[in-house]
Amino acid sequence: MLGPSPDWNVGLSAEDLCTKDCGWVQKVIQDMIPWDAGTDSGVTYESSNKPTLPQEKIRPLTSLDHPQSPFYDPEGGSIKSVARVVIERIARKGEQCNILPDSIDDIVADLAAEAPEDEDDTPETCIYSNWSPWSACSSSTCEKGKRMRQRMLKAQLDLSVPCPETQDFQPCMGPGCSDEDGSTCMMSEWITWSPCSVSCGMGIRSRERYVKQFPDDGSMCKVPTEETEKCIVNEECSPSSCLVTEWGEWDECSASCGMGMKKRHRMIKMTPADGSMCKAETTEAEKCMNPECHTIPCLLSPWSEWSDCSVTCGKGMRTRQRMLKSAAELGDCNEELEQVEKCMLPECPIDCDLTEWSQWSECNKSCGKGHMIRTRMIKMEPQFGGAPCPETVQRKKCRIRKCLRNPNIEKRRWKESREKRRSEQAKEDVDGGQFPGCKMKPWTAWSECTKLCGGGIQERFMTVKKRFKSSQFTSCKDKKELRACNVHPC
């Protein structure tokens, strides 16, 4: 027995261990599923011990018996075995036999008598239980659907002979689409009444039952599965009690098939006289059961190979697909048909990045032939095989005027010109540059040269100190100067 339920059990009876040539089988392995003895109407291990009247036939449990059953499967799959018996021969004794044991003959005869309408090509060495009742049709319209029944393999007398399937499917149509008269619904007994909805005064209580077997024509059962009635709690309502309305109608079940949840509500008509909080529940929820879901899943092709990466270097994406081979019989196919994932290739090359060219410097000679230079700076060195940096210093010739024959005079003039420029610059550095409409701060000191040789750049800045409101000039901006430095070859 499978406690604490009083009428679920597993076991073996009249196992045949003979082979066709009157020998003993070497080994028999029998997986066992639970059977219902038909004496108790409980649907779970914890159900109360309520006798089934009249007593039902012994039958194997199925995955479609009741939604609260621990073996319930909305897709109607086979119940997993709960025990396994292994019989293995360890000695050879008494191998002569002429006929099968009477007990096996009796089993075969009894099974044939119980289900004469299910004649098929099942081998005599395979002994099955009776077929379970047909499930509800998977179609709710006049389109073709499927229904299922199952049985249990009780004994396999010859392991070399394969036994047929334990599940059987049959085409069917939705309710009202069959010309034949459908059989009536087979209902369970009513479940015990629920507690009264109030703690004092008049309230409501309910009870439920479920469909044990649907009509053979695949139609839905139209008999009620829930009853409600008024109830009175013989207890005077105290000042802390509150008055509530009757429960409203149940909301629709959250599931269109199989098990779901439903709710109903009520309102507080009068709060407690003593000013306390009303302790009565205003929302009630319970499980609800619609016809079992018998959807045939959609069939999909295997996943394709991953595509090439979407980029030729760096980070990208790649995809793979599969195709819908057959749609689901009920509802849409919700399986994903495409998958996307990240892919990583070697880093992309980064070319050298340079600033713009600076202004040309002054000629390095005051007369005769000389040269000027301009420079630019490297903003980013090349990476991952990018293009190298080009030249950062350019030179060009300059010619101001012919030099006088007396080099001392020319040298003196050049010194005078240089001193004049320095004097003007020094004055500008001290007083700050003056521009129309604003007063400037003094120039900052020259920055360090960007290179030790081969031509670098120094820079300095002048920022606006004050803008005159009365001025009409709008070109008052911060200033920046560049000059060449360390121009000697490396």
From TrEMBL:
<dbReference type="GO" id="GO:0031012">
    <property type="term" value="C:extracellular matrix"/>
</dbReference>
<dbReference type="Pfam" id="PF06468">
    <property type="entry name" value="Spond_N"/>
</dbReference>
<protein>
    <recommendedName>
        <fullName>Spondin-1</fullName>
    </recommendedName>
</protein>
<dbReference type="InterPro" id="IPR044004">
    <property type="entry name" value="TSP1_spondin_dom"/>
</dbReference>
<feature type="region of interest" description="Disordered">
    <location>
        <begin position="414"/>
        <end position="433"/>
    </location>
</feature>
<keyword id="KW-0325">Glycoprotein</keyword>
<dbReference type="InterPro" id="IPR036383">
    <property type="entry name" value="TSP1_rpt_sf"/>
</dbReference>
<keyword id="KW-0677">Repeat</keyword>
<dbReference type="InterPro" id="IPR009465">
    <property type="entry name" value="Spondin_N"/>
</dbReference>
<dbReference type="InterPro" id="IPR038678">
    <property type="entry name" value="Spondin_N_sf"/>
</dbReference>
<dbReference type="Pfam" id="PF19028">
    <property type="entry name" value="TSP1_spondin"/>
</dbReference>
<dbReference type="GO" id="GO:0046872">
    <property type="term" value="F:metal ion binding"/>
</dbReference>
<keyword id="KW-0130">Cell adhesion</keyword>
<keyword id="KW-0732">Signal</keyword>
<keyword id="KW-0479">Metal-binding</keyword>
<dbReference type="InterPro" id="IPR000884">
    <property type="entry name" value="TSP1_rpt"/>
</dbReference>
<feature type="domain" description="Spondin">
    <location>
        <begin position="1"/>
        <end position="70"/>
    </location>
</feature>
<keyword id="KW-1015">Disulfide bond</keyword>
<feature type="compositionally biased region" description="Basic and acidic residues">
    <location>
        <begin position="414"/>
        <end position="430"/>
    </location>
</feature>
<dbReference type="Pfam" id="PF00090">
    <property type="entry name" value="TSP_1"/>
</dbReference>
<keyword id="KW-0272">Extracellular matrix</keyword>
<dbReference type="GO" id="GO:0007155">
    <property type="term" value="P:cell adhesion"/>
</dbReference>
<keyword id="KW-0964">Secreted</keyword>
<dbReference type="InterPro" id="IPR051418">
    <property type="entry name" value="Spondin/Thrombospondin_T1"/>
</dbReference>
